[in-house]
Amino acid sequence: DFERFDGNQLMDQLLDEQIILLENNGFSFELKPCSIPFHIDVHLISFRRVFDNLFSNIIKYADKSKTVKIHYDIHDGLLLIHIENVVKKEGHEVNSTGIGMKTCKKIIEQHKGQIAVTSNKQTYSVHISLTLS
């Protein structure tokens, strides 16, 4: 059930929804959208679920006093999405089963893409790459 979308319109819509949630929860953000036109084939409900999960995690675990960075661009036939936040300071316990990120990984793989997470004690970054057809 994959549908073809104007990539910039789709990303704008998905990110606008999440940015409203960030703002409503006291976060600031930096958004760098893509300036290159592209089309992408996605299963919309699943693809939206990835964003819902990623931004839900930011609201739970990120430091509100730091800017959430969101960037997406096209490079070598790939849509590259990068989301980075600063993790709350010590004393905030993380109660996570990891199921959400496993679900994101499965969905991104179904879209012929990859998702990688890099983290240290200060920052948490998610990198998604999707092949454009």
What does this structure look like?
The protein has helices spanning 7-24, 44-61, 99-110, and strands at residues 3-6, 29-32, 39-42, 68-75, 78-86, 113-119, 123-131. The protein has three helices and seven strands, in the order βαββαββαββ. The strands form two sheets. A five-stranded mixed sheet has the order 2-4-5-7-6, with helices on one face. It has a two-stranded antiparallel ribbon with strand order 1-3. With 133 residues, the chain is α+β, with helices and mostly antiparallel strands. The mean pLDDT is 93.
Layout of strands and helices, then pairs:
Elements: E1 3-6, H1 7-24, E2 29-32, E3 39-42, H2 44-61, E4 68-75, E5 78-86, H3 99-110, E6 113-119, E7 123-131
Parallel strand pairs: 2-4
Antiparallel strand pairs: 1-3, 4-5, 5-7, 6-7
Helix pairs in contact: 1-2, 2-3
The SS-based structural class is: alpha+beta
Order of helices and strands: EHEEHEEHEE
Strand content: 25-35%
The strand order across the widest sheet is 2-4-5-7-6
How many strands appear in the DSSP assignment? 7
Radius of gyration: 15 Å
Helix content: 25-40%
Largest sheet: 5 strands, mixed
Unreliable residue runs: none
The residue-averaged pLDDT reads: 93
Inertia-based shape:
globular
The N- and C-terminal alpha carbons lie at a distance of 16 Å
Q: How many helices in DSSP terms?
A: 3
Q: Tell me which oligomeric state these chains represent.
A: single chain
